[in-house]
């Protein structure tokens, strides 16, 4: 009776706790890249759950069937040879599971590293996202504006983030749009994302980078293209220009609130020249074209 009450209370406690949990951000996808990754995670969880249920069922069966009996102390069980079918199943099934998950993972990796599916024919919005202790700087070279610790992005348009760091290695991550990617001091890494729905999202540095790491976050607002253009026009009319002196001041270690400027630091503090992982819709590198476009922008 006590055992039954114990299991009843344990199930009740778990149910009560889980009822108050909000959905994990990685499962609340707002873009095609995040949807693909969420499906892969759920697929892995499903396969592992089946394996765990089967293993525990076999464990219970074996414990019940081969439990201690009232045999004499001098009883010696017969010698049984190995069963080739059992051995083949125990070895073959894990190999098939690992092989299948490897295939899915490699396929998904190529998909999320490329332009989001359905957006191949659209021109991406290029945003240079750089980190410093402990802030995020977002430069919009085409719009000629820059923000600190917050992003404005249009929905239903591909986004191409150019990531690098002014300090230690950080990791750029917007869980509801896609996976994380590292930002380093000596090279640019490219991350392709897109937002299918408008709303407020959360982004953060997912790589430990010192005592201010926990607050190294930023907000993301996804809005329709028309509203995004209105925001750009408003910034150009109201924001102050970003000077080299102001940028050097912002780079000092510490936490800041949200800031908005006209102009970008790309003009006087260009990003690293080496571009790693920049793939176009066909899977080919377009590093040369991006570098030329950036050079043309600086010359103007």
Describe this structure as you would to a colleague:
- With 300 residues, this protein is α/β, with parallel strands linked by helices.
- It has a domain at 125-299: Immunoglobulin-like (Sandwich), CATH 2.60.40.420.
- It has helices at 2-19, 32-65, 84-112, 225-238, 244-251, 287-299, and strands at 125-132, 135-140, 145-148, 150-154, 158-165, 170-173, 181-183, 188-194, 199-205, 217-223, 240-241, 259-262, 275-276.
- Residues 280-300 have low confidence and may be disordered.
Structural class: alpha/beta
Kindly report the oligomeric state of this protein: single chain
- Classify the beta-strand content into a percent band: 15-25%
Number of helices: 6
CATH-assigned homologous superfamily of the domain at 125-299: Cupredoxins -  blue copper proteins
Q: What form results from the Cα inertia axes?
A: elongated
CATH topology of the domain at 125-299: Immunoglobulin-like
Low-pLDDT segments, ≥5 res = 280-300
Mean pLDDT over the residues: 86
Question: What descriptive keywords fit this protein?
Answer:
300 residues, Immunoglobulin-like, 5-stranded mixed β-sheet, 6 helices
């Amino acid at each position: 009776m006590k055992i039954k009450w114990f299991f009843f209370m344990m199930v009740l406690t778990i149910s009560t706790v889980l009822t108050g949990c909000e959905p994990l951000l990685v499962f609340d996808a707002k873009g095609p890249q995040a949807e693909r990754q969420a499906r892969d995670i759920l697929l892995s969880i499903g396969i592992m759950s089946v394996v765990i249920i089967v293993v525990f069922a076999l464990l219970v069966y074996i414990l019940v069937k081969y439990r201690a009996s009232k045999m004499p102390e001098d009883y010696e069980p017969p010698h049984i040879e190995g069963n080739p079918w059992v051995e083949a199943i125990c070895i073959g099934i894990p190999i098939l599971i690992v092989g299948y998950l490897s295939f899915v993972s490699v396929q998904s990796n190529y998909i999320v590293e490329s332009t989001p599916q359905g957006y191949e024919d659209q021109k991406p919005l290029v945003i240079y996202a750089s980190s410093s202790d402990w802030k995020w700087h977002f430069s919009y070279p085409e719009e000629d504006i820059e923000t600190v610790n917050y992003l404005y992005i249009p929905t239903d348009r591909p986004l191409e983030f150019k990531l690098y760091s002014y300090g230690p290695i950080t990791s750029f991550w917007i869980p509801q749009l896609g996976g994380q990617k590292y930002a380093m001091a000596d090279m640019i890494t490219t991350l392709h994302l897109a937002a299918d729905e408008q709303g407020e999202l959360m982004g953060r540095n997912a790589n430990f980078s010192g005592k201010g790491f926990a607050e190294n976050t930023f907000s993301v607002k996804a809005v329709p293209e028309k509203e995004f253009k209105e925001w750009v026009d408003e910034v150009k009319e109201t924001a102050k220009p970003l000077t080299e002196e102001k940028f050097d001041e912002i780079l000092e270690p510490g936490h800041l609130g949200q800031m908005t400027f006209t102009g970008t630091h790309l003009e006087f503090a260009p990003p690293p020249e080496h571009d790693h992982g920049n793939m176009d819709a066909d899977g080919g590198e377009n590093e040369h074209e991006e570098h030329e476009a950036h050079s043309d922008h600086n010359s103007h």
